[in-house]
Amino acid sequence: MTMGLLSLRVMATTRLLRLLRFEVWLVIALSMSAASLATTDSMSTSAFSDTMMSTTLSSQSTVINDFESASSIPFTTFQTEANQSQGVGSSDGVGRDGKIPIYLGGFFTLGGNWDGSGILPVVEMALEHVNNRPDLLADYELRMVWNDTQCDAGLGTKILFDQIFREPQKLMILGPACSTATQAVAGTAHYWNLVTMSYAAASSILSNRNKYPLFYRTYMPDSMYNPARVRLIKEYGWTRVATIHENHELFSLAIDNLLTLLRQANITIITSESFSENPRNQVENLKNQDAKIILANMYENMARRVFCEAYKQGLTGEGFVWFMIGWYSDGWYQVPDPDVTCTISQMKEAVEGSYYIATESLQLSPSKEAGITGLTAETYTKEIRQRLDSPRYANLNYTFNNLAPFGYDATWAVALMFNRSVEVLKNMTFKDGVPRRLENFTYEDKEMAQLFFRLLNETEFTGITGPVSFKSGDRVGITQIEQLQQGCTNDQFQIESVCLTLNTDIETWSVASSACSQLGDRTLFTPSLDAIEDLIDIVSEDGMTNTKWYIGLYVDSDGQFNDVSDSLNQSELQALTDSWSSSLTSGCMVIDLDQADEDGNLLIVDCNQTYPFICSQPTIFLEQRLGLYDTAGDVLDWNSRGIFWPGTGEPPLDSTPEVIIVIKEIYEGIDTYLYIILCIFACIGILFAVFFLAFNIKFRNQK
């Protein structure tokens, strides 16, 4: 069954359901949903336990699924309190400290085609922060009942029905993450007067107010990146480009908008290619059209296929510029993929050698000042990483997600809107004359839904992702310009070609060394003299009180220096040994970064003493932020990193230079004056010849 037919059936069904009794139309709706989902391969093997989580993750109680009789696909419903634990909470209408609980319906993606598991802990963290603020929702406790949509539209619709017809009453929908599931949920939820706030859906079709009248998002739609792309193309003087995209509504709409902007900017589109599975013919056409500047829109699994084919046909590396989507996962091109015929090393050569440029929504605000949330980007990153490592989440395999900050800001946008609604409702007159509070919202209350919608449109604040505001439901934000370059993650510091992690846990040297190794390709850091000064600056700017840190040097029983990081060669280690005191004893090295001594101090201590430690690893290829583009003001602000151009270091041309050989015949004669002189002598010679000829004829008989 096609998605269009499914959408029509769902729309028609939802209209009918509102007119029928609950028991009857619920069975009808889910029967149709189950029949549609039966054709979906990804759902045919899905099996979810119908479990409602209790106050802690380790304690669960099983309940009967209301839909189990109408569908063969059970799923899990979780209810979260914002009180340092995830659980069902009480359903007696009383929250913490006598507050009234109000609920959001949460839609997350823990599996399927995309792993968004790291967003859930961030939203739970935001709920805790909101509920701990005495100046927000003073009489209420904001809670959430959430489900895993698996990035599936059919399952998302089924979950929506479950959210609606199960207690407690939901005031809004938070999510889903994927555009396909969001289209299904947002296209149906408005019939129950539920405003939907997505934190990651990027499809441009969701901007259609006729189809999605109560939809908001904190993540910018993909079409909003196009002005930044066009600005970059104009910035480097390119006048001819090509596009290639996956045949998917999400990308097709964005490319259509891009083509319009390119034509308006008088930029020639030499070809616009699209594909469904195998991009070989389309990449070959790019080559035949001499495409050098290529703009691509597709999911990362398809991007692997495109880059593999481009590598085979010589369209990667020096001389080519690829514009990609910026929300791919780190190392996306190194994921083993049976549909990709290139090796991992070939994919690394193709992608890393191209240094592609990417655009996406600003993920973390560069500002050092905290907004209304009380967090800066740096403090947010530290807190969420600590949470992911905590016992509460450690065994759930939730992964750090770069889009999670949009979930945090989405939660705050909803909370701020509700907080303002409390005061507005006190003075609002409803058609039935009955005053209302937040807890009085029902799915038949169109007036309150319109109030929520209007107040969200007026909500403005500074969040983790920068300034947050909305225009017709879409996020008004800033586009982040990125490039695949060697660098470090957001929670690391880069010194030269090394990424440093400052671990404030107090450990012995051996434990510290093991802890670094457990983090992957990392060891204790051994700094050079220049790096010591940089370390002093890092510790100072970060506000750390620790001055002594374990590093990767130790002295063995023979009095010789050893380096676990292998950053010093044998001659350097021997020089260090020779320069040290003759009474050198075994022990481990700490570096004293006392700011009063800019040269730093290397101290040998007992290895069983405990200190914080510094882990290091080589820089890796990551999408590094180069600048920010403000669409509203057409302002492009570069940072100090700058774009790296492989090869010559200069921006490549947008076409292969043509070599034209022109043969021009030029007559080169003698000098004019010389010619005249020679002519005179020639004439004189002729005259002499005529004279002597006549003389010989006249006197020919004389001897």
Summed up, what is this model?
The chain is of the alpha/beta class and 703 residues long. It folds into three domains: 47-219 and 371-401 and 403-473, 3-Layer(aba) Sandwich (Rossmann fold); 222-363 and 478-488 and 623-663, Rossmann fold (3-Layer(aba) Sandwich), CATH 3.40.50.2300; 491-618, Mannose-Binding Protein A, Chain A (Roll), CATH 3.10.100.10.
Molecular structure report:
The protein has 19 helices and 28 strands. With 703 residues, the protein is α/β, with parallel strands linked by helices. It has three domains: 47-219 and 371-401 and 403-473, 3-Layer(aba) Sandwich (Rossmann fold), CATH 3.40.50; 222-363 and 478-488 and 623-663, Response regulator (Rossmann fold), CATH 3.40.50; 491-618, Mannose-Binding Protein A, subunit A (Mannose-Binding Protein A, Chain A, Roll). Strand 6, helix 6 and strand 7 form a beta-alpha-beta unit. Helices cover 34% and strands 21% of the residues. The longest helix is centred in the C-terminal third of the chain and has 27 residues, at 672-698.
Name the descriptors.
3 domains; eight-stranded mixed sheet; Rossmann fold; six-stranded mixed sheet; single chain; 703 residues; disordered N terminus; Mannose-Binding Protein A, Chain A; alpha/beta; flat
**Order of strands in the sheet with the most strands?**
10-9-11-12-13-18-27-28
* Continuous helix count: 19
- Fraction of helical residues: 25-40%
Q: In percent, how much strand structure appears in the residues?
A: 15-25%
The Cα radius of gyration reads 35 Å
Biggest sheet features: 8 strands, mixed
Average pLDDT, to the nearest integer?
A: 82
First-last Cα distance: 128 Å
Uncertain segments of ≥5 residues (pLDDT<50)? 1-75, 81-92
Structural class: alpha/beta
Number of domains: 3
Principal-axes geometry comes out as flat
The CATH architecture designation of the largest domain is 3-Layer(aba) Sandwich
CATH level-four homologous superfamily name of the largest domain = Response regulator
Strands, count: 28
